[in-house]
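[step 3/7] inverse_fold.run input=structure_tokens len=223
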């Protein structure tokens, strides 16, 4: 599926934390279109993960409107399958009881076509340098290798929209490049890619960089 995107209009999210509420998002406007890589940069606690959590439907906004566009117009994020909306969560979310290859194949297994997706899973794993780890369980691999498996899993079904929270956080320069190659290739094939990142390498590869500060989004002011 190509041509889908995601639009946020004035999203506000406040967490009730003890006696003092925390405004994580103070009115965020954002549009990410199919074919582009948009990077969100900002200090720790500025609201990047909260924005991704709203965009994927894990959290609900207090106010504002979230919409998916193109072929996904009118759909709520919680109704979208992995070929429509794929995630790389900050905590990765690999299944501990499955070897890496089965983790990568999980989106296909859940829709009943794991066998057909096998070759692509193998190619993606080889592309990000974990082809030799197919039979290892997550706890038998490094955090960086687990992160690469999470990115391969997200790319498996050519998602229309991909949201990735610091997808290169645990990588050395070379592996970060390979991950970014895979994410940029997905965008060039039509995926709308939104990355939250602190990684200059990722910022260099993005088509647009937006800065989050105190729950607000704006253009990046300094390189
Ligand atoms: N479930 C929650 N309950 C209360 N406060 C929260 C919750 N989740 C996030 N926050 C607060 O909301 C603000 C934004 O957090 P968020 O995780 O979105 O930041 P971030 O930019 O992704 O940070 P980092 O770069 O460290 O991942 C922070 O002040 C954080 O403490």
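[step 3/7] decode complete -> sequence:
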């Amino acid at each position: 599926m190509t041509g889908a995107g995601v639009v946020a209009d004035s999203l506000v999210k406040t967490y009730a934390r003890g006696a003092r509420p925390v405004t994580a998002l103070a009115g965020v406007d954002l549009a990410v279109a199919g074919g582009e890589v948009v990077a969100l940069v900002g200090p720790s606690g500025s609201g990047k993960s909260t924005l991704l959590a709203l965009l994927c439907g894990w959290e609900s906004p207090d106010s504002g409107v979230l919409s998916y566009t193109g072929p996904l117009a009118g759909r709520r994020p919680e109704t979208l399958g992995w070929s429509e909306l794929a995630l790389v969560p900050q905590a990765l979310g690999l299944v501990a009881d499955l070897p890496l290859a089965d983790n990568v194949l999980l989106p296909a297994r859940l829709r009943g076509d794991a066998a057909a997706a096998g070759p692509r899973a193998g190619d993606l794993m080889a592309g990000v340098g974990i082809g030799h780890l197919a039979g290892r369980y997550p706890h038998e691999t490094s955090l960086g290798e687990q992160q690469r498996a999470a990115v391969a899993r997200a790319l498996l079904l050519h998602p229309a929209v991909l949201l990735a929270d610091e997808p290169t956080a645990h990588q050395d320069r070379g592996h970060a490049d390979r991950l970014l190659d895979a994410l940029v290739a997905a965008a060039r094939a039509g995926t709308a890619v939104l990355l939250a990142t602190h990684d200059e390498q990722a910022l260099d590869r993005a088509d647009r960089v937006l800065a989050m500060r105190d729950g607000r989004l704006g253009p990046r002011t300094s390189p």
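[step 4/7] annotate
The longest strand covers residues 5-17.
The first helix runs from residue 48 to 55.
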